[in-house]
Amino acid sequence: QVQLVESGGGLVQPGGSLRLSCAASGRLLGINAMGWYRQAPGKQRELVALITGGGSANYADSSVKGRFTISRDNAKNTVYLQMNSLKPEDTAVYYCNLNLGPRAVDYWGQGTQVTVSS
C-alpha cells in the first residue's frame, strides 16, 4: 500500500511564498517520478512540475518557471514544491503524484488548497 501525505497549503497574499511537502510511504520500489499537479475551480487538473527518479526537474510551462522549484529528499521519500512570487492565478488544489514501477502506476495525494488573495 502506497500513501502520499501532503502538507503546506494555505492562504497567502500575492507575492508571498508557500512550500508544499509530500511524504510517500509504503512499498516504494522503482520510483519513476514524483510531481505536483493543480486543479483550479472549473478547470482540468494540470501538471505543475515533476522530478524524475534520476533527479531531473521539469516544469510544465513558463508561468511557473523561475517562481516554483521542485526538489526531492530521497532519504525521506519526500518531494517539495517551493512557490515564490505567488499570483492569484496560482489558486488551486495542489495534488502530489507518484509514478511507480515498471507498469508506471500513478498514486495521488489527497490534495492541499492554495489560495492567493489579498
Protein described:
With 118 residues, the chain is an all-beta fold. It has strands at 3-7, 10-12, 18-25, 31-39, 46-52, 57-59, 68-73, 78-83, 92-100, 105-108, 112-116. The strands form 2 sheets. Strands 2, 4, 5, 6, 9, 10 and 11 form a 7-stranded mixed β-sheet that branches. Strand 9 and strand 10 (105-108) form a beta hairpin. The N and C termini lie far apart (40 Å). The mean pLDDT is 95.
Chart the SSEs and their pairings.
Elements: E1 3-7, E2 10-12, E3 18-25, E4 31-39, E5 46-52, E6 57-59, E7 68-73, E8 78-83, E9 92-100, E10 105-108, E11 112-116
Parallel strand pairs: 2-11
Antiparallel strand pairs: 1-3, 3-8, 4-5, 4-9, 5-6, 7-8, 9-10, 9-11
Keywords:
single chain, 118 residues, mainly beta, seven-stranded mixed beta sheet
Helices and strands, in N-to-C order?
A: EEEEEEEEEEE
User: Approximately how much beta-strand content do the residues carry?
Assistant: over 45%
Coarse shape: globular
Rg calc: 14 Å
Number of helices in the DSSP assignment: 0
Give the low-confidence spans. Answer: none
- Structural classification: mainly beta
End-to-end span in angstroms? 40 Å
Mean pLDDT: 95
Percent range for helical residues? under 10%
Biggest sheet overview: 7 strands, mixed
Tell me how many strands there are.
Answer: 11
At a glance:
With 118 residues, the chain is an all-beta fold.
